[in-house]
């Protein structure tokens, strides 16, 4: 049985809370990322995307930083967006939710005139992003105690 879901830019406090709920479940509970570093000042200005099941249940989320907020994460290039906080609920993994979220974030980046998207991938997820056209660069580094690599995809 397939799960029907849709992905949209989050609008309003209910959508934002749904995004934060998925992030809490995946990062804070599953991966034990400290809550105080999971949520940050960028959440106020980021473009959040939300995947929801037909009945409204949130399945996944991600965010796009752009402009001045992205510069520190993209090597100083304001024409590159930063994809982050991509999270898919455990029960929704393997359904294509992650791919749909990445593509929605890329669409949001294109709509804002960005030429590429950077991200910091957990090393276990490198293959996922490589299949979507991202290329790793630079050395491995820790983030919240989890090994990561920087990746980029031109749009």
Automatic annotation (TrEMBL):
UniProtKB keywords: Acyltransferase, Transferase
Segments traversing the membrane: none
N-acetyltransferase domain location: 2-155
Pfam families linked: Acetyltransf_10
InterPro entries: Acyl_CoA_acyltransferase, Bact_Acetyltransf, GNAT_dom
Name of the protein: GNAT family N-acetyltransferase
Organism: Streptomyces lateritius
């Amino acid at each position: 049985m397939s799960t029907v879901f849709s992905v949209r830019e989050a609008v309003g406090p209910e959508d934002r809370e749904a995004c934060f709920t998925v992030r809490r479940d995946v990062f804070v509970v599953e991966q034990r990322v400290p809550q105080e570093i999971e949520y940050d000042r960028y959440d106020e200005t980021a473009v959040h995307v939300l995947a929801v099941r037909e009945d409204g249940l949130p399945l996944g989320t991600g965010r796009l930083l752009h402009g001045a907020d992205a510069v520190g994460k993209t090597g100083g290039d304001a024409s590159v967006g930063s994809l982050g906080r991509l999270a898919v609920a455990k029960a929704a993994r393997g359904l294509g939710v992650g791919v749909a979220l990445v593509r929605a974030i890329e669409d949001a980046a294109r709509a804002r005139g960005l030429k590429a998207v950077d991200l910091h991938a957990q090393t276990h997820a490198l293959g996922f992003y490589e299949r979507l056209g991202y290329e790793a660069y630079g050395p491995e580094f820790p983030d919240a105690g989890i090994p990561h690599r920087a990746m980029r995809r031109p749009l």
